[in-house]
Batch of 2 targets.
Target 1
Amino acid sequence: MLIKSKRGWELPESAVTPEHIFLSRRTMMAAGAGVAAAALVGRAEAQAAPDPTADLYPVRRNETYKVERPLTAENVAGSYNNFYEFGTSKHIAHAAQALPIRPWTVKIDGLVEKPQTIDIDKLIRAMPLEERVYRFRCVEAWAMTVPWTGFPIKALMDMVQPQGSAKYLRFETFDTQSWAPGMRSPWYSWPYVEGLAIDEAAHDLSILVTGIYGKPVPRQHGAPLRLIVPWKYGFKSIKSIVRISFTEQRPQSFWERLQGGEYGFWANVNPAVAHPRWSQATEELIGGGGRVPSQLFNGYGEYVAPLYRGRERERLWA
Ligand SMILES: Nc1nc2c(c(=O)[nH]1)N[C@H]1C(S)=C(S)[C@@H](COP(=O)(O)O)O[C@H]1N2
Ligand SMILES: [Mo]
């Protein structure tokens, strides 16, 4: 159900938002004005500090995973975002500047030999950073091609040493904060949570991102640490992570909990399996690249299809 809006690649929000949420937004907007003033003050403070990891960029590009598409323009990718903590529109980049990204710690706990709470700068400097150009496909049928900087989750797993009983990783975003106005919405169950099976997480394509376009990742893209799993729909790629837990039980993710009929745990890209409300056969390249066919596993099937052998009875495709 795609309707042309002013910019051809933008979906009308009513097409991609569960209806009760779309309707409630009008009510929420009335409450939003007071927060804006407080957020302005926070934003000025947050922006003042230089990024303490800026000296690390740009880093060497790993050319293993080739992408045939041109890169999406940096300003296009950086101004068309999904980050519901800051609101349900695509234009949250300005509001997201209120996110304080230092000091920042990541708690790694659960079924690991070396649980720890690690300072973000210590973590970034300890990990093997590289640049990866990946296709990125949102479940809403838009796509971009972006040079991420990050490190394989496998490197973090080697640091904390998962126990044999660990079967899943559960990722969590920061919890409710006054400077994140979207979190005042009663429709969602915060914080944002996502999960991966441990073999998916250990795959070389799965990275924790610290940068983009050869610079530290900006707040609207999920600073200072976000997940990228390029063969899955974009909602799996959780932003601004504060906690990673190794679990035996499969975690329930944010969208799965809200709307399980439309968004499942595995969420692998498959053009042949339609979303209940729209086709996934094609995708719009944001920034004017036109509409192109979508690809099974977003084009990464040669690398990741083996992960799903023996899992055929699961609901693998979002
Ligand atoms: N914490 C958090 N992570 C999130 C989201 C969100 O709303 N909150 N949106 C997801 C969705 S639906 C997409 S498509 C991508 C968008 O990433 P980008 O804005 O960097 O392109 O972030 C994902 N990670
Ligand atoms: Mo998305």
Target 2
Amino acid sequence: MTEKEPGSGAGITPPENMTEALVCIDHLLWNTRLIRKQVGETPRIMGIVKANAYGHNVHKVSAALETIGITDFGVANIHEAIELKTGGALKNPASILAFSSPLTSHIECFLQHDIDMTLCDSETLQAAEEIAAAHNKTLSVQLKVDTGMGRLGTHPSMAMELLRCMENAEHLQLKGIYTHFADSSSPGGFTAQQLAEFKRLTSEYEHAVSRTVCKHAANSGAILTAPGSWLDMVRPGILLYGYHPAKHTPLRLEVKPVMQVEAKVIFIKTVEAGTTLSYNRTWSAPTLRSIATIAAGYADGYARVLSGKATVMINGKPYPQVGTVTMDQIMVDLGTEHDVKKGDRATLFGWDGPSAEALSEIAGTISYETLCSVSSRVKRIFI
Ligand SMILES: *Cc1c(COP(=O)(O)O)cnc(C)c1O
């Protein structure tokens, strides 16, 4: 890390970290190459780096992806786009696309920072043309079509009309048309239906204007299940970070987790049979037990619903987490005999511990949420 550590400076040593998220750039590159092998050489790969690259650090992830030829990046909104663009990590990105439908007040920011703007409706189109004209600049836009996700985008029946308006708007440049799948991890027919609608519409447009436009649709699920959806560009997110979008995707790539969260053992004690631990006293020692306290809790992203259900790895051995997860610490049952010492590292999830997927299943969520929940308090270490 290049930022200045708080509490560091002339002659002052910063405190040793107690909770860290190791981010393995080799695993990220490995996963990206597997995706490239899967989709072949034709489609571009847009690196999806929204939500601070699913918690991994947007600057480090984007810079690493750029070293292997990725020049398109997708983020959630204008704020994330500006952060990436002005952060200095990218040398020369071909494009940064913000997926969110912008507020009118954002349009000027898209122009100033040269970010691709998602367009979903004619009011935004008109406002964008006026603002771009007033600045005597060209705004890059990508049309979002809602083929069934039901979140953002123009209804397919209105898309041709919007595209016609775009043709007449002198200060707007159409850089792409895209859609998003609602259920692409499942092999069912809905993805095929969405794709058919999208292809019908884009070919009607391309035929009408006698030129092609960049068309894209495939998220990680569709990269695994729907080769016909790869088109001109694919948009992997979760696969880059080493997880599959769902447990049941028929095709599995040999992706590796990019993040491992580790926290130190900060206290060990022995308790008598019947001693209770933590808030609400939900666990009591069945016999004499050794208990380790570990420096991570729900404020670090270790969900409170995991209380009493998860396992952590210490020195290669699994130990059950016991009692209620607190804000800053968890407790682990070391049993009666153990070789754990204060200062040892516990792996909460990652390549040596339970996977984020396994932990997520216990918590009733998906790996995406577990990764994004690792809070800013957890120091990212790039290895
Ligand atoms: C998040 C997102 C993706 C990536 O989804 P994954 O399931 O993580 O691959 C692709 N496209 C859009 C529009 C998204 O919002």
